[in-house]
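Sanity check

After download, print the first record. It should look like this:
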Amino acid sequence: MLALEGIKVLDLSRLLPGPYCTMLLADFGAEVIKVEEPGKGDYSRSFPPFLKDFGYWHLQLNRNKHSVTIDLKTEEGRNTFLELVKTADVVVESYRPGVLKKLGVDYEAASSVNPKIIYCSLSGYGSKGPLANQADHDIGYVSLAGITAMSGEAKGGKPAIPGVLMADMNAALSAGMAIMIALRHAEKTGQGQEIDISLYNVAMTLMPGAASLFFGSGFVAQRGNNWLTGENANYNIYRTKDNRYLAVGCLEKKFWTNLCKALKREDLVDLIDDINNHAYLKEELEKEFCQKTMHEWQDYLYGLDTCVTPILNFDEALNSEQTKANDMVLTIVDPELGEYKQLGFAIKMSKTPASIRKRAPRLGEDNSKYIQT
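Expected structure tokens:
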């Protein structure tokens, strides 16, 4: 038996945060029903590249799910959705605040037909405040939260766009955890509840280090002025002989000592204790690391506990031995689509592992199963 077998989720969300959250639930056995707009569905269905008429984004994020089409703007559609709510455990939605209330399918309406329903809303800025109804994307949330200001080169360079959708992905994980907490509460009390996940709020919580510095001393963390953003020699990025890069993360003295010994630069070991020496140390490491290629350094430092790793491109990361050992790329064989690949499961469970049981659904392919006509 899968861990979440018996849990039914109605997924009104689109694009990334909501679908990623419900994908995780589906991977562990939840019955996830995508409730989509007739004729269009989740926007990600149309994102290239394609395998036949399936977008890979859709294939990745909506595996193990079912799809029904309901026009929530009609009275019939509203009634159909609320009928589904009666036998559901969870609703996940990502509309702007107030939209579903106008349509008559918000938490209040859902809980009136099912008091045990858990209703999780994912939005950009939450349900209140001056930005509550503002449209935005990940770059906006992380920029207003202060994350973008800490990314990029410090000297004369502009802030860098983070390469991962941090607010989106972490909001998805936060929503998944919140849903599990709410399910536990509902199991004990018979009462559902409303969950409000703001991508902006989640982005704010991703910086406990910056918060500690500011709350404790008033120091404002920016790119290049603290250990996380490039001030320190032992937590930095260095160019190699072949114009590739290494990430150095030997924060603890023992790992820094191991690196200095590997470089035959024991003279640098104790200099790390004084922040005033870090500019000099960075210059010395730049000289050292430009003497070998990235892969030569990878081989040379392997097993020496230096906390130095190559900075790989995504294709290299997918093909690395560590990725293979952790089964993080899965090959799927589908009777209709043939063979294709998916990212694997980051959550490894010894008793109740995740699994892929069906490919992402065609738009409305499960209407006959879930909608009474």
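If your output differs, re-run the checksum step. Summary of this record's structure: The CA atoms of residues 80 and 371 lie 7 Å apart.
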